[in-house]
Write a structure and sequence with these properties.
By secondary structure, this protein is of the alpha+beta class. It has 5 helices and 12 strands. A 12-stranded mixed β-sheet has the order 7-8-9-10-11-1-2-3-4-5-6-12. A hairpin with an 8-residue loop joins strand 10 and strand 11 (about 230-235). The longest helix is centred in the N-terminal third of the chain and has 22 residues, at about 5-30. The chain starts with 6 loop residues before the first helix and ends with a helix.
Length: about 260
């Protein structure tokens, strides 16, 4: 199938955005299971906020996030080691708009992809395309499940240098995004580009009445040609979100050769 000039690399990068974001979670190891409750209750605002980060015991829930270049939504089902993530990329310099989705349950994975904005772009069925991992050559071609905290809230809060409770369930403070695992959350080289400003990035967070984190927002300052933006993570509907099940019947199909060609390029 023909593609618009210069679109192949753009498409590969766009499809890889979701995988790259979740690969970052893999590198960080997520938050992982929490340890047994301590004998003494947590007292500091930072400890209370860390304790609110999802650890897989809350049941299925929804999440969303955005950074300087993309926005994602999805669901997490920790008991099944499953998640669904949907990414929408704004039009690139060639006018190509990309929408991608991944659905993962254990070792099984499905994908959806849609490209618009130019003639000759790849066209895929509007169904969940089942992928065969044996046909994928790159380690970062597709995401993997590694913990409930898909938005990396835990590593970011852990790097906070100050946390204050502003009221019931409301927190603010400063995060050093250049330290530890927090430096791996932002795009490559971004923390370094921020210089000293990386050590004092303002954040706000909210925790629901049930004690679960509902939002984390970092105000990333401008650096070089990159404008200031907000890194936002939201978690919602803990325990009331539908569990994730494998698509069946007319909702699914085998991935065509073009899907592997795109992911492996």
């Amino acid at each position: 199938m023909t593609q618009a000039p210069g679109s192949a690399g753009t498409i590969r990068r766009a499809v890889g955005t979701v995988a790259a974001m979740l690969t970052a979670t893999t590198l960080l190891g997520g938050c992982g299971p929490k340890s047994e409750p301590a004998a003494e209750p947590r007292t500091s605002p930072k400890e209370a906020l860390l304790d609110a980060v999802p650890d897989g015991t809350e049941g299925p829930f929804r999440f969303s996030g955005k950074d300087s270049s993309s926005a994602v939504t999805g669901r997490v089902d920790p008991e099944s080691k499953a998640f669904e993530i949907n990414a929408a990329m704004p039009p690139d310099k060639d006018g190509i708009t990309t929408k991608t989705s991944f659905l993962l349950i254990g070792d099984e994975i499905w994908m959806k992809a849609k490209f618009t904005g130019q003639p000759g772009l790849p066209k895929f069925p509007d169904k969940w395309m089942k992928l065969d991992r044996a046909k994928l050559t790159g380690d970062d071609a597709i995401p993997t499940y590694d913990g409930a905290d898909q938005g990396n809230a835990g590593p970011l809060i852990d790097a906070a240098t100050s946390v204050e409770e502003q009221g019931p369930g409301r927190y603010s403070g400063l995060i050093d995004v250049s330290s530890g695992n927090a430096a791996k959350v932002l795009e490559d080289g971004e923390a370094a580009a921020l210089g000293e400003a990386a050590k004092r990035v303002p954040f706000t967070a909210t925790v629901g009445p049930d004690g679960h984190l509902t939002s984390l927002t970092l105000k990333i300052p401008a650096a070089g040609k990159r404008k200031a933006y907000e890194y936002v993570v939201t978690y919602a509907d803990y325990g009331s979100t539908p569990t994730i099940t494998a698509p069946t019947g007319g909702a699914a199909t085998k991935a065509p050769a073009l899907a592997y060609e795109m992911l492996n390029s």
